[in-house]
């Protein structure tokens, strides 16, 4: 029994080591905060980099091929500056930034890299999800990890903040509920709500609840995680949106999906969220599918809270990203890939 265990451990080490080789990652910062009204979230990408994201990723076994594409810059088209859409604050900025995000993410994906987008507020999800679908065809599914569904339209939003609207902009089923959006002709509702799943919901507006119920959206709230555990919830979500296990997975991870004790430096924190341990396990499960195509990590706001709060929040974001890209809590195996059998005590070498 012990001999079989030793062989199993060795084979697992070997398999996990080789699965990491050749993984290519593209980092993209989107220092954008016009999708909501709290200042500071634009500094999220810089804070995540400064606390050592790349260094953490370089420690991952198998040596990731990491390329940092810098930060997105954009200009508002002259003819867009004077145009407005009712109840969509800073609309011209939203349209221009997302178009540039879309172009850059497309370049990263077409170079064969997993695109990791560092936000910025969650309105950037319009650009990242839209272009992921364009790059991979419709063979993608989306996990929206968030305390909020972000399913409001400009007619239903109580704030006009576009970071609460990206899924409604992307969903085919809600296309008829939008007016014409000038400067957004590059973006069309591209994904069916059947191919998205929410995890971590606990703050849902009445209109969003109506849409979720009427359209049968796969939505897993915190009570579901409490009842079934995070592994079961992720398995259930993937079985619903990717039953044949062949789709490229887009994960859009709002840091407010974590409990505010774990990630206090964010603009719309809600108590009762996931623990960091659950967030890490969620991303480890996604990594194990070998189908992660793109990851957004958004709404880290270094201007909110104390220095300790900011460090805790940024560190949580780095843990989430590292788990998605293969960091193992079991520790690193030797760079040679396989431990020599002779290093085990004789009783474990028996067959």
UniProtKB/TrEMBL annotation:
Reactions this protein catalyses: L-arginine + H2O = urea + L-ornithine
Gene3D superfamilies: Ureohydrolase domain (3.40.800.10)
Keyword Disulfide bond tagged: no
Cofactor list: Mn(2+)
Protein name, entry field: Arginase
EC number from the UniProt entry: 3.5.3.1
NCBIfam families hit by this protein: rocF_arginase
CDD domains: Arginase (cd09989)
Binding site for Mn(2+): 122, 146, 148, 150, 254, 256
Organism: Dendroctonus ponderosae
Family assignment from sequence similarity: Belongs to the arginase family.
Presence of keyword Hydrolase: yes
Any one GO MF annotation of this record: manganese ion binding
Gene Ontology BP terms: L-arginine catabolic process to proline via ornithine; urea cycle
Pathway: Nitrogen metabolism; urea cycle; L-ornithine and urea from L-arginine: step 1/1
Entry keyword set: Arginine metabolism, Hydrolase, Manganese, Metal-binding, Urea cycle
PANTHER family on file: ARGINASE
Cellular component terms per the entry's GO annotation: cytosol; nucleus
Note describing how the cofactor binds: Binds 2 manganese ions per subunit.
């Amino acid at each position: 029994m012990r001999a079989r265990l030793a062989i199993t451990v060795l084979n697992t080490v070997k398999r996990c080591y080789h699965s990491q080789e050749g993984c290519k990652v593209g980092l993209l910062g989107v220092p954008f905060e016009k999708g909501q009204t709290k200042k500071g979230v634009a500094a999220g990408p810089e804070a995540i980099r400064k606390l050592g994201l790349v260094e953490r990723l370089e420690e991952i076994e198998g040596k990731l091929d990491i390329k940092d594409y810098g930060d997105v810059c954009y200009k508002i088209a002259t003819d867009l500056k004077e145009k407005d859409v009712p109840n969509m604050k800073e609309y011209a900025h939203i349209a221009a930034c997302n178009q540039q995000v879309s172009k850059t993410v497309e370049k990263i994906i077409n170079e064969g890299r997993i695109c990791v987008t560092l936000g910025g507020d969650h309105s950037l999800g319009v650009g990242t999800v839209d272009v992921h679908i364009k790059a991979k065809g419709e063979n993608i599914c989306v996990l929206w990890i968030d305390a909020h569904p972000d399913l409001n339209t400009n007619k239903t939003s109580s704030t006009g903040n576009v970071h609460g609207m990206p899924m409604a902009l992307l969903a085919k089923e809600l296309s008829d509920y939008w007016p014409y959006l000038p400067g957004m002709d590059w973006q069309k509702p591209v994904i069916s709500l059947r191919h998205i799943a929410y995890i971590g919901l606990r703050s849902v507006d009445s209109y969003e609840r109506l849409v979720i119920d009427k359209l049968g959206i796969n939505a897993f709230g915190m009570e579901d995680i409490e009842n079934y555990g995070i592994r079961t919830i992720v398995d259930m979500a993937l079985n619903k949106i990717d039953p044949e296990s062949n789709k490229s997975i887009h994960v859009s991870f709002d840091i407010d999906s974590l409990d505010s004790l774990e990630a206090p430096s964010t603009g719309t924190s809600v108590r009762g969220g996931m623990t960091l341990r659950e967030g890490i396990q969620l991303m480890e499960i996604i990594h194990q599918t070998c189908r992660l195509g793109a990851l957004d990590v958004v709404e880290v706001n270094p201007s909110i809270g104390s220095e300790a709060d900011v460090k805790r929040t940024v560190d949580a974001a780095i843990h989430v990203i590292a788990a998605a890209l293969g960091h193992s809590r079991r520790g690193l195996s030797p760079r040679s890939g396989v431990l020599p059998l002779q290093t085990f005590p004789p009783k474990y070498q028996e067959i």
